[in-house]
Amino acid sequence: MNCSIPVELIGSFGEAYPGYIVDYKAPDSFVFRFVEEFPGFPGDITVLPACLRKPPICVVCDAKGPDVSVGDCVEVLAGKSATNELNEALPPSWWPARITKRRGDFAIVEFCACGEASEVSRAFPKPHLENVVEINQIRHRNSEQLLSESDFLYHIFNVPQELVGLFKEASNIEHIVRACGQSMLFCQVREDMKLPLQFSNTNISEGSVTKFLVVCTSPETKLKAETIDNDVIRMLRQKHCILHQISELSRRLKEVNSVKSDEFICAEFSVEKDLVGHSIGAGGANIRRARSVDGIVSVILNPDTCTFKVTGKTKEAVENAKKLLEYATEAMQVPQQYVARIVGQKNHQIQALVDRVGLARIRVQAANEVTVPNCVPFAFTGTRSAISDAKILINFITDNLKEIDQLQAKITPHECSRFYNGEGNRYKKRDPSSKSDSAKGERTFRFHQMDSGQATDNGMTTATTFNGDAGGCFRSGRVTDTGTEHSDSTSYRNFRRSTHRRRRNQLPLSRGGGGSDEPSSQPRQESLPPPAPRPEESILQSETIPRLGSRHGGGGRRGKGGNRNQTPQADIGGVSVITES
Prior knowledge:
The protein is of the alpha+beta class.
């Protein structure tokens, strides 16, 4: 695992060798490694914490070197062997010294007396030390103290067995180090490893998880490691799941590629450029449906040529997928007299047809686009199966409309009129319009009278037929050579009743035709005689004339806004008669 703690190893002469702690053995035993490998020197050295110290804080120096002056206590970089042979190169080390003189980029230093030799560094040879050095080989003396066992802090990550491989990857370790701090060491817990005192009771042989010991020298780094412990495991699980899916897809792809291509059935078809969007569907819905068909291996669209390539294990699967993707536009000629009934009011009928068969749209083309006389082209857009179903339905509706028109053509207008006027239909319901017309005719006949014996109004006209009978002709009836044909038997009975009532009231009708301008000799009596006049009141005896029955006549309007107290006025035969109410 690519992680380490930068430190400096103190030699037997007080010099400091830069390097890293790369492994943990016990709380009092660590593995130190130099920054570079040198021949004749071991790669890894087991050292005590008391032989190590932290490196100095990096100070950015300008091109002229560190700011030092005469008399300063510094450390000088040395590494040249005493025999000046290349094969005897020594690891770089910092030696304590004092500046005695400085000129430009050079300085004269005096090395301090070396201390007592250490057991760990006793085998290191002493390099050749020169008193004249460059300024770039000088740094300020390191003020860090030597480390102890208590300066090292620990934390354990419990990693599931299936995630150990991911946890050991350098990219994941570097991600954790960046989140926590640069000075961290990850070590997998082993049987020969002596754990710190706080983890002495930890079960190392637990099979479901693998333990990793985190070593650091900063309390902040330890706190961050404890905080992200659960997040690290969750992140590894998600990554493991994604990698598993990728590997499964790769395996399936290899299986597909390993099968011979002649065992699959492939179909290619093109779609018009303006219909490619319909074939793809909203968010690729149609392509997903085609790929989900059982037996389909792949569905590929070439957007440049608008061509679909469908590959499947069976011919049926390829055809089913093709039905979902192959969109087209086809036209059909519909007779012009049936277009309105097929479309329906507010396009309800045609919209129901679109929804039923699953078409994308139906376009009824304009009159200037008509190519067949007396026909209107319908343009269907959708899948081939939907277009076929739509044509079948349109043909079915057209055939039914033709048959209905042929049946209606067999009924003559005279037979239709007799059927609706009451003859041949014993149980025919009464027409509300005829009832209102007859009632209006009766009411008008009572109020309007001509000397010729012919009552006229919008509703009824009496006439003398060839057989001498008086008949009534209404709006819905007609006058024939043999008599009057009534629209309703009830209306005829009402007419006869009104005639008898007039005879009882002794209201004779003129027999001389319609040329007389004089009113009748006696006034018409209403259903009840007028009350007898009181002796103390003088009443002007006058003729009583019928009020105008038509609302558009000269009489006062009985409805809202009419003047009831106004004296009625009527013109009969050019004579104006005014009556008092």
